[in-house]
Amino acid sequence: MKAFFALLAAAIAPFVAAHYTFPDFISNGATAADWVYVRETANHYSNGPVTSVTDPEFRCYELDLENTAASTSIATVEAGSTIGFQAVSSGASDIAFFDIKADPILFSRIAPSITQDAATGKTWFKIYEQAPVFENGALTFPSETQTQFTLTIPKSLPSGQYLVRAEQIALHVASTYGGAQFYIGCAQVNVVNGGSGTPGPLVSIPGVYTGYEPGILINIYDLPSNFTGYQAPGPAIWQG
């Protein structure tokens, strides 16, 4: 069983301004309405984060672990095309900037089936990441005014149904275990005109993190003297 996950690490501005969700899937420049192709999450009203990396809800944070997948539509996308997510805060028309003093990390993962059970094993892999930049003794966050992100599906990804997972990690209170805040959204897609690549390395969710990784357990206000750069958690990127 194969899967694919893209990790984007982007960072943000000086103060906590809003929590958010990723309800809007983007395909070739077109942004869908809330929760059409993205499984509705349990925080769709509160916009609150997931903080436990071991809970089953860490996978997609569904409103209903048994029924949400079946009630979500499937977007048809081509291998090699551009996809992404748009963040929303509070309501359907309230766009959120990622303006938190944090290191947001976005994961997009694709699993080989739309069903929840198909994504429970080692079926996930990373296809993208964007990490904060370490310069002049501090981390800087390139996406401080970003409301959405996009990435390219590897052209060699085999055709089939996939689950695309977006994840952003806010690190403003990540100096203690369990302090990192994860914002998650999973879109359901059917990839067409794919190739014959073999994605990997494969990981499971939950299971991909322990919560003690240096990119998750970190004091961004007081970096150690030997700090040389941010280490994005998770597996290596599959280039396709």
Automatic annotation (TrEMBL):
Pfam families: AA9
Location in the cell: Secreted
GO MF entries: metal ion binding; monooxygenase activity
Keyword Signal (UniProt): yes
GO CC aspect terms: extracellular region
Reactions catalysed: [(1->4)-beta-D-glucosyl]n+m + reduced acceptor + O2 = 4-dehydro-beta-D-glucosyl-[(1->4)-beta-D-glucosyl]n-1 + [(1->4)-beta-D-glucosyl]m + acceptor + H2O
InterPro entries: AA9, AA9_LPMO
Domain Auxiliary Activity family 9 catalytic: start-end pairs: 19-225
Entry EC no(s): 1.14.99.56
Record protein name field: lytic cellulose monooxygenase (C4-dehydrogenating)
Cofactor annotation: Cu(2+)
Keyword Protease (UniProt): no
Entry keyword set: Carbohydrate metabolism, Cellulose degradation, Copper, Disulfide bond, Metal-binding, Monooxygenase, Oxidoreductase, Polysaccharide degradation, Secreted, Signal
GO process annotations (BP): cellulose catabolic process
